[in-house]
Amino acid sequence: MNIRPATGDDFAAIKAVAREAWHDTYDELDEALIDRTVDAWYTDDTMPLEAPGTVVLVVEESDLADETAGTNDIVGFTHAVAQGETADILRMYVVPAAQGQGIGTTLHERLLVELEAHDVEGVRAFDFAFNDVSRRFYESMGFEQTDTGEVEIEGEHYDEAVYATEL
């Protein structure tokens, strides 16, 4: 397993990982809505790699490349932004074939190291409130649900859970 900063050449693989994970995880959402959302949200415009405080990491795992949906060796990624004393984890996905193998945990731990370099004191993570897998993951990483919010997709509002931890 290799975790490294994302480059502009990784966006096709990032989008493929996101699409596969969204379709596997978010049964509550229409398939076509998932495809449109992934196409809109996972681009170099919405995840600017050079923006101050931005951390985008990818996980390469060549042993799993044949089991994924054309992502080359990239089987997961995360995207966070550090601003002031707080960092927000906006995205964290691992393809279904690679889940349960510690890849997400290792990626998350590496992300926290990267965020500590930005002198943040706390980290928040956001996901759909209906995502129990995400809730269990963040709770296992020491996060607690501290708030709720809403995310809007194509005019529809979905409940969002906000998890937080101190560094």
UniProtKB/TrEMBL annotation:
Pfam families: Acetyltransf_7 (PF13508). The keyword Transferase applies. One of its GO terms (molecular function) is acyltransferase activity, transferring groups other than amino-acyl groups. InterPro entries: Acyl_CoA_acyltransferase, Bact_Acetyltransf, GNAT_dom. Residues 1-165 form the N-acetyltransferase domain. Keywords: Acyltransferase, Transferase. This is GNAT family N-acetyltransferase. It comes from Salinadaptatus halalkaliphilus. The lineage of its organism: Archaea, Methanobacteriati, Methanobacteriota, Stenosarchaea group, Halobacteria.
